[in-house]
Amino acid sequence: xxxxxSPPRPGxxxxxxxxxxxLSLLAALVLTVLAVLAGxxxxxxxGSGGWxxxxxxxxxxxxxxxxxxxxxxxxxLLLVDAGRAxxxxxxxxxxxxxxxxxxxxxxxxVGVGSYWQADAGAASAxxxxxxxxxxxxxxxxxxxxxxxxxxxxxxxxxxxxxxPVEVKIGGGVAVRHEMQTIIQEDLTRAEMIALPITLVLLVxxxxxxxxxxxxxxxxxxxxLGTNAVLSGLTRFTDVSxxxxxxxxxxxxxxxxxxxxxxVRRFREELAAGADPSTAIGTTLRTAGRTxxxxxxxxxxSLAAMLLFPQYFLRSFAYAGMxxxxxxxxxxxxxxxxxxxxxxxxxxxxxLRRLFRRGRPAPAPGDEGGRAWGRTASxxxxxxxxxxxxxxxxxxxLGLPFLGVKxxxxxxxxxPPSAESHVVQQHIRDGFPGSPGGGLEVxxxxxxxxxxxxxxxxxxxxxxxxxxxxxxxxxxxxxxxTVLPKGEAVDDAAQDLVGELRATSAPFDTAVTGTAxxxxxxxxxxxxxxPWAVAFxxxxxxxxxxxxxxxxxxxxxxxxxxxxxxxAMFGAxxxxxxxxxxxxxxxxxxxxxxxxxxxxxxxxVAFGLSMDYGVFLLSRIKEEYDRTxxxxxxxxxxxxxxxxxxxxxAVILAVVMVAIGTSRVTNTKMLGLGIALAVLMxxxxxxxxxxxxxxxxxxxxxxxAPAPLRRFHQRFGLSEGEPARQAPAAAPxxxxxxxxxxxxxxxKVDAHG
Length: 752
Description:
Blueprint: H1 12-18, H2 21-39, H3 57-68, E1 76-81, H4 90-104, E2 109-114, H5 120-123, E3 133-140, H6 144-158, E4 160-162, E5 165-170, H7 172-206, H8 209-233, H9 241-271, H10 276-303, H11 311-342, H12 353-356, H13 369-381, H14 383-398, E6 406-407, H15 419-430, E7 439-444, H16 449-460, E8 465-474, E9 477-484, H17 491-502, E10 508-513, H18 514-548, H19 552-564, H20 566-577, H21 582-585, E11 593-594, H22 597-627, H23 630-660, H24 665-697, H25 706-715, H26 743-751
């Protein structure tokens, strides 16, 4: 426990955030109200796509086909079910033709076609093999918002029973629109689940209802601010609807994490006898610095997604960085103002006394810490065993990821009962070929009919081609539709993309379609992934060095954080790709993982792991600077932070699990996967692997060459007080504000 003797004058930042606390809180209230107004209706402006590379060949071909041949890219499918009758029954034919004409007359609809109006070659792909179902295809024009509005307008008249037929609506537009609606509903439900559970957990952590309400209040401010940030971002760039889920989770989870550490440190200082002003000054100079470093590490991991071209990933970088900084700002500005006003009343309304039955209350700074200290001591006594066993278990849990298969996000993201999912599943199960999922080859440049025919013959001879339709010619452009023999995005279809692009032609060709988009997306991610990993690693190494002044600790932090993610990636493949527990969790496994999801989950989970790593390392560093006792510092650091890190991880996991209750598979995967990663990091890596590794590396843990020691002395920060002026030959690390002068100082000078 820290003792306060002759406290220093409050620094400039402390004076700034606590000079007028009531005015600060009033300004925050006004800004929060403005954020509510600015963020209202934000979900309606978010997109549901963004998985494609905007600079890829498939994207170019898609845009050219939309411009020159609107009917080539149907995004609306009407499944016409004739019941027990045949789709060729005269009454069915008449009603289907009426529906087709009615759809073609709608504003914003182009390229309408159907089984009943197609030529013999195309008609076979639009008719179910049992003869009881057939398709009407069309394209809704405009951007995502315009397409959604058009679908809302025409769907009521199309959906349902029409004489002898039953109509269901599917296609890409319907899938995206239904996904957007479900995500909005699920997000509201997730918040309603997470908030009361979080409050209960905070009361269990703090005992005091007042102390518990502070982190929750900061979290709510961050959530509302997040919505305003997202609303502003949509005016300048595309933002994915999925970002709303994650940024809400990060806004709540990180704001609570940061507030937990600040409130806990403030209560420790009060318990040590400090007055509120001195306590908040010490808190900001110690835990406040750690919160700032933590926010930077999370922001760095999220910023790496800016290197990828897909707006699905870039939107998480924009919104995630904003919400991290917002959560940190709320914790470092609003929370100190509230703590100054509350003072000792922060410990009021101790609800846990109802269950203690006369036992004395634990000291605010020592709640549950002894067990963590004993755990650290046990682990360090048997460090080789714990290091090897923990590493082996984590590697074993990650092995399923070696069998990962990448795919695209499609209707199977939706619950089995969703209408558009039902339509697409009927098409997969009952229709020949891949209607709506074939490959389109755009041909540009003047060519004769003979040249087109020769090219078509070469394409039809490829082993994975079931049928080639076309060409449809418009001036100097034409296109062919190529239907693969198997699934639209299986390995054979992806190989076919490469074969089509390699097939010689007397004109320029560009290939698009679902499989082509997947191939280009995988290529774009593969090209940028090494740069993203290098960016995260280099900046993280620098930040952790600035925090600790050690060369070895940053390397340990990066490697152990990466190791902590193995369980998440293994579980993602075993559960969501291979389909284990799909019935229990309520999803349909497509047999693959959407290409961008592992990148997103890595960036987010790595950042959160660093978040907890910074909190633990900063406290170990503070104790080592104060005492010079390496093993004692590790044990005391874990004792002081182990319970709090675990509580913070459990609270964040609750938020992510609430997000994971979503009916959209990608959101479910994201929430449950990150919840698992956070819990593994806090309960396994921080509790077992970190103390074991630090015991094995011993005092060499804190070594740095002389030039780097001087660099850290000048620019480094830690959770202790600023370093005193050290002799030129021996840089002196930053001591704790209350560190006594004495033998411990000599140890720090010798080994810091």
